[in-house]
Amino acid sequence: MRDRTGPNNPNWKGGRIVEPRGYVLVRVGVGHHLADCRGYAYEHRIIAERNLGRRLRSGEEAHHDDNNPGNNEPGNIKPCRNHAEHALFHRKTGKRHRVPGERNPTVMCACGCRGTFRRFDWQGRRRYFISGHNTAVSKKRADGTPMPILEK
Fold first, then answer.
1. Does residue 106 surpass a pLDDT of 60?
2. How many domains does the chain divide into?
3. Which residues contact 33 (CB under 8 A, 6 or more apart)?
4. Helix (H, G, I), strand (E, B) or coil at 85
5. Which long-range contacts (CB under 8 A, 24 or more apart) does 108-115 make?
6. Domain range holding 129?
7. What are 125-134's pLDDT values in tens digits?
8. Which residues, including other chains, have CB under 8 Å from residue 64's CB and lie 6 or more apart?
9. Residue 137 falls within a domain, yes or no?
10. Non-local CB neighbours of 106 within 8 Å, separated by 6+ positions
11. Residue 1 falls within a domain, yes or no?
12. Same-domain status, 125 and 69
């Protein structure tokens, strides 16, 4: 029987597959460093390597700027250093965590004690009270009036 793989196979579709999530896989051969066991690799990762002029390092990811996984134009693919940097591109607005590079202003405590602190803690979480002010023990302001309840 003759060799019926690749272009010799009557079912050959040019070596491109679109997976269910919309990402495009291209046939590169089993020996390629990005290939899976069938010899296919994600096209956006190949284009990210071309844009960088080198191989992607371990942990580096490729981001589609328009969030369309099928659009693999070279200008639409942005390489990211790690998953955390890639996640910033997909972050929804209104989150309570600090974005890297965002300034950390000094604010006043919501309980009215006039204490000041940095808006975000060391883990990037937004704060409203000085540590210990949002406990069951301290439910009143310094002048005796009740503290406001903040919606989350």
1. yes
2. 2
3. 55
4. helix
5. 109/133, 110/147, 110/148, 110/150, 111/138, 111/141, 111/142, 111/147, 112/141, 112/142, 112/143, 112/145, 112/147, 113/141, 113/142, 114/142
6. 95-152
7. 888 887 776 5
8. 44, 71, 72, 76, 77
9. yes
10. 116, 117, 118, 119
11. no
12. no
* Alpha-carbon separation of residue 117 from 28, 63, 89 (angstroms): 55, 36, 29
Q: Tell me, what DSSP letter sits at residue 55?
A: P
Strands 61-64 and 77-80 come out as antiparallel
- Using pLDDT thresholds of 50, 70 and 90, give the confidence band for residue 137: very low
Whole-model pTM: value is 0.62
Do 64 and 76 touch, CB atoms closer than 8 A? yes
Token duo for residue 124:
């990037």
Q: In this structure, are 136 and 101 located in the same domain?
A: yes
CA 113 to CA 116: how far, in whole Å?
9
- At 72-93, the pLDDT tens digits run 999 999 999 988 888 888 877 6
